[in-house]
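User: I'm new to structure prediction. If I give you an amino acid sequence, what do you actually give back? Let's try with this one:
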Amino acid sequence: MLVSDVMTGFPAHIRLGATIRRAAEVVSVSEVGQLMVLDHDGRFVGTLAEEDLVRAMLPSFGDVTAGGGTLTDAFRLFLEKGRTLADRVIDPLVVRDTATVRPADELARAAIVMIERGIRRLPVVDDGALVGTLSRADLCRAVIYHS
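Assistant: Good question. You get back a string of structure tokens that encode the predicted 3D arrangement of the chain. For your 147 residues, that looks like this:
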């Protein structure tokens, strides 16, 4: 079985130069934990995980302590930092050395890469173009519907 047999087409994506606010909106609407990132020519360049967005907005321990030290203070600082960063571009947060697979790759190979590296969603790239993603859920569907 090939990656193309079970991959998800039309993945949630964003372009370099987009703001952190826009990335948060796309994550929220698409309900995926990882956005695919394209350059201005539509070529795949990397990924942006919701975890990295949240991490960028988290206040440091020192900031929380200086701000009062309570959970309420920490949440207030989180919101303030989020508002401060909202209009900055995502580019520094993009992971560019992302593992990818091709549509014609064997599904078993992709599954091994995902499990060995702890990857939840792999970009499916063909000649530099993003054509889909392969998630752990896609792997599970493959087992259910092709057994």
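You can read the tokens as a compact description of the fold. Here is one thing that stands out. The two ends are 11 Å apart (CA to CA).
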